[in-house]
Amino acid sequence: MMIAVKASPYAFKLDPNKVALAVIDMQRDFVEPGGFGDSLGNDVSRLQAIVPTVQALIGLFRQQGWPIVHTRESHLPDLSDCPPAKRNRGDAALRIGDAGPMGRLLVRGEPGNAIIDECAPIEGEIVIDKPGKGMFCATDVQSQLDALGVTQLVFAGVTTEVCVQTSMREANDRGYECLLVEDATESYFADFKAATLAMLTAQGGIVGWTAPLADLKEAVG
Ligand code: TIU
């Protein structure tokens, strides 16, 4: 039985047997001082405000027994999966792979690359290390979702217009119905978040739907 969630631009029909949550890049590298996001000159404190909401959303999916995918933006220690075009981008003092206060920036296994404790995956949840912004680029997430029969993805995480939007667009092109939880995502730039929500839902939901957590919770009951 479908669950109608009040959403923009119109109700999202959630299928409890086909839905999964995708929590994008809730990592120390983006949320804490001394990580990759900070090295790019961003105010990382903006992202910390959504942590309780992301936690509550994860809790809702756990309570329902629905699948959860956690992603990490990360590179192998030898950076063989980091194109020079990515590593050389920008003019920051520290680049991907350089040593920062939480270890090497955006490198798999380093302390700063971990998902923050509040959102940490538990046994049985899918964890995807991705070298790109989108979750489908150079990962096996699609086959893992196929194995579970997932056709709908609820999105949360950081940052709204970079890894979250890219992942949602990739998912939309692969045929998933996508719902972004408005207060469980954040950007370093308030106006970019607002613009992203608007552009995803324009034209009858050209990329998908958005809704606040309260409306998802109310619908799920
Ligand atoms: N810089 C920025 O806004 N984001 C990223 O580099 N990665 C993610 O969004 N995870």
Explain this structure to me?
This protein has about 220 residues and is of the alpha/beta class. It contains 9 helices and 10 strands. The protein has a 6-stranded parallel β-sheet with strand order 7-4-3-8-9-10, sandwiched between helices. The protein has a two-stranded antiparallel sheet with strand order 1-2. A hairpin with a 2-residue loop joins β5 and β6. It binds tricarbonodiimidic diamide (TIU). The site of tricarbonodiimidic diamide (TIU) has 11 residues, from α7.
- Low-confidence segments, ≥5 residues, pLDDT <50? none
> Cofactors and ligands present?
tricarbonodiimidic diamide
| Main beta-sheet annotation | 6 strands, parallel
What helical percentage do the residues reach? 25-40%
Q: How many strand segments?
A: 10
Strand proportion: 15-25%
Order of helices and strands: EEEHHHHEHEEEHEHEHEH
Number of helices: 9
Summarize model confidence as the mean pLDDT. 98
State the distance separating the first and last CA atoms. 14 Å
Global structural class: alpha/beta
The largest sheet has its strands arranged as 7-4-3-8-9-10
Structural Rg: 17 Å
Basic shape: globular
Q: Mind sketching the topology for me?
A:
Blueprint: E1 3-5, E2 12-14, E3 19-24, H1 28-31, H2 36-39, H3 45-48, H4 51-64, E4 68-73, H5 84-87, E5 99-100, E6 103-104, E7 126-130, H6 141-148, E8 152-158, H7 160-173, E9 177-186, H8 190-205, E10 209-211, H9 213-220
Parallel strand pairs: 3-4, 3-8, 4-7, 8-9, 9-10
Antiparallel strand pairs: 1-2, 5-6
The protein binds tricarbonodiimidic diamide.
